[in-house]
Amino acid sequence: MYSLITLLLALLLNSTAPTDDTPAKRRTKQRVYRTDLGDHIEEITMHDRHGKVATVRCFDRTGQRLSEIHYQDYPLRLRHGQTRFWHRSGQLQLACDFKKSQFNGPLATYYEDGSLKRREQYRNGKLRTSQCFSQDGQAQPCKPLLTNVEFAGGQAGFVAFLRDRLDHRRINLVDAPAFVTLRATVHKDGTLSGLGTLYNVTLRPEPEQVLNQQFVNAMATMPPWKPAELDNIPIEAYILISVSLRNGHVHQVHYEVYAF
User: In 3D, which of 35, 30, 33, 19 has the Cα closest to residue 53?
Assistant: First the structure.
């Protein structure tokens, strides 16, 4: 009888003891997602249960770290904290901090041999000081740190492309809203992926939601873009595409990098 009571008590204690799979543990447990993107591996570590606070690291096929970016709101690509890029040799390429997706504090870029290429100081996104150097250490004029993506043929070419695709699909724009805004990713090789509507489009009237999706479908395939560049080096960038409509036609387009 004594041994039976002891066994029952042990089972009861084990069933109520905390484990790594309790709801409290699951809420705070970091979730790591790895994706093979061909020439590199992307690793996303989510630090909160809402899927917002995240660290994104990229590695080459040998395991060499290529980048590390910290996000306050990953779905919105809101950077906050350190950002680091490395050359494939392992040498540091870029070191800077962000505050709500704006450069904040010191920024430095380096040549592959480790020599300083650029040194800048920012405060809440505003450039305060800037110095640039040749690979042998000589001071030289600074070119823009970040250059925008560009569609083949520029904005005029993009307007012509959109008009042709929309006409081909016979999409009626007579009663369309004044603007359609989409988001996408332009990769280092100029290919575009992840074309989609903004996150808040579901709050808009249904005809507007349908029109946004029609634009996404019409732009499903397109020629390569000129990628964005950071200190003259191609980078992957997240862009917003704003399309202005007038009199039932595409009137103007504007695209810009909102994160990288």
Answer: 30
Mean pLDDT of the chain: 84
Confidence at residue 104, expressed as pLDDT on a 0 to 100 scale = 95
Q: Are 80 and 100 in contact (CB under 8 A)?
A: yes
**Which residues is 78 bridged to in the sheet?**
73
Q: For the residues 158-170, what does the mean pLDDT come to?
A: 88
pLDDT at 22 over 70: no
SS (H, E, C) the chain: CHHHHHHHHHHHHHHHCCCCCCHHHHHHCCEEEEEECCCEEEEEEECCCCCCCEEEEEEECCCCEEEEEEEEECCCCEEEEEEEEECCCCCEEEEEEEECCEECEEEEEECCCCCEEEEEEEECCEEEEEEEECCCCCEECCCCCEECCECCCHHHHHHHHHHHHHHHCCCCCCCCCCEEEEEEEECCCCCEEEEEECHHHHHCCHHHHHHHHHHHHHCCCCCCCECCEECCEECCEEEEEEEEEECCEEEEEEEEEEEC
